[in-house]
Amino acid sequence: MAxxxxxxxxxxxxxxxxxxxxxxxxxxxxxxxxxxxxxxxxLAGLSxxxxxxxxxxxxxxxxxxxxxxxxxxxxxxxxxxxxxLHFRIADGLHINSHTPSENYLIPTEFxxxxxxxxxxxxxxxxAGINFTLPLDPQTKxxxxxxxxxxxxxxxxxxxxxxxxxxxxxxxxxKSACMPPKTIKVxxxxxxx
Length: 192
Prior knowledge:
This protein has two domains: about 1-50; about 60-190, Sandwich (Immunoglobulin-like), CATH 2.60.40.1250. The protein is about 25% helix and about 40% strand. It contains one helix and twelve strands, in the order H-E-E-E-E-E-E-E-E-E-E-E-E. The chain has a four-stranded antiparallel beta sheet, with no helix packed on it. The longest helix is centred in the N-terminal third of the chain and has 46 residues, at about 1-45. It is globular, with a radius of gyration of 32 Å.
């Protein structure tokens, strides 16, 4: 009987050791999986971090100005016609107005290519607002923020003209500026 008790005890110890090893291996696999998952979540979170939530963000990755509308206009051919162009500046950014407060600042300028069949007779820019930099309260800048409209007067030859007009500007936040940029302003101008 002692022999049988000894064999049962050894079997229980062996089975307990096997179970302990299985549990330890499962725990190790679970821990490795959890660490890998957490790593992927962190990387995904960093790569998709919203611009407004990260104070050390790279301004170069932000689309500062967006052309809103119109996409198409019909104007009498050969006659000067008023066309309002609407733009939006990204939250937290500003761009210098068409008449910046200092000569060294880049003004906002709208242009139409000469070979487009459409001529820009005039462009009237909105008045900018005064903006004071937190780092230099003595300097007042004249800027655009939010949405703004450029009032143009266009002349078109007869026909359908897919114009790739341009808006040149320099965008900044409260502490840094991006390099000057030119965006395309696509407008289908139909001269009738």
